[in-house]
Amino acid sequence: MYICGLKFLVILKDTDIQIIASVKEILNKANLNIVIIPHENPDGDAIGSAIGLAEVLNNIGHNARIVTPNNYPDFLKWFSSDARITVYKDKKKKAKSIIKGADLMFCLDFNEASRAGKLEKRILNFENPKILIDHHPYPTNFCEYTISETKYSSTAELLYDVICTTGFEKKITKSAAEALYTGILTDTGSFAHNTSDPNTFKVVSELMKFGINTDKIQSGVYHNFSADRMKLLGYCLNKKMVVYPELRAAMISISKEELSRFNFKTGDTEGFVNYPLSINNIVFSAIFIEKENIVKASFRSKGNFPANKFSSENFNGGGHLNAAGGESDLPLEETIEKFTQLLPGYKHQLLETII
Question: How confident is the model over 33-76, as pLDDT tens digits?
């Protein structure tokens, strides 16, 4: 297996070589109708991977469509790609028709069907082959072909290697490279974390050879927010952030009323959980956001403190070592109290964490 222009050996260590061969054989068929589904509340990696893959599949000669469970942030709507995206929440009938008429389904950047929200049943009941490409740990077995590689910084980076190992590297265009680069950029926090593997930068260097404007992408992702979003961030840092210096932890909480007060739009709280980690000696950060009938949680950490283990043990979630998500069916205030009571039980790990 070789990465496109670099010609160095790539080993997808957790994927059977026969799966790659089978995926290649499927994609070598002519004129397939293909649906690509990212997870609910698509982030930069999910939507970037979906657009990048759609570009490549269309260039192969297939008819690829993207169906997202719900909308994605406005700051991720500047892509130059012509990939067709249908939002299931807004256009259910059209989305159902696309899925029903598909010969093949790709599930990107999630490894449990429930992560696709209202599309879960559509995925599980899909009768034709399904291919999973994802970098999160502990995948469930709901696809015929699973490409799950946790060593990758992002699904976008993994997808680039999959495209090349299946022999379709010449179908990558500038638009596809732009989308894949965005996926890597966002899932590494602008290359601030998950970048210990040199492969990440080797892939980035290959994508840059397509002439993508990295400054423009950086600006589109990180300098493209609404004034309301910036005011909400300022409010959270000033009024809603609680720091536990003796435990090297911090927490932000946001109620439904506060979201409404600042005219919340999808994606406005993206990245908020990372800000407390900028505080000296803080190694663990959490954010709790009140939604309808549930409180969404995100966790971030530094060093070897396991954010994913904390989430799975206490908030029905999981994820990566340093980045995880979860949820609580308790009211917001009770969820905050639960978090506050849990922290001392992790004091030894938090104090021993090396950064």
Answer: 999 999 999 999 999 999 999 999 999 999 999 999 999 998 89
Same domain, 62 and 193: yes
d(CA 186, CA 181): 9
Largest CA distance in the chain: 61
Instruction: Please write down the HEC assignment for all residues of 265-328.
Output: CCCCCCCHHHHHHHCCCCCEEEEEEEECCEEEEEEEECCCCCHHHHHHHHCCCEECCCEEEEEE
Instruction: Provide the token pair at 309.
Output: 């283990």
Is position 11 within any domain? Answer: no
243 and 344 in a single domain? The answer is: yes
| 152 and 116 in a common domain | yes
Judge whether 61 lies within some domain.
yes
Model confidence pLDDT, tens digit, residues 84-116: 999 999 999 999 999 999 999 999 999 999 999
Say how many domains are in the chain. Answer: 2
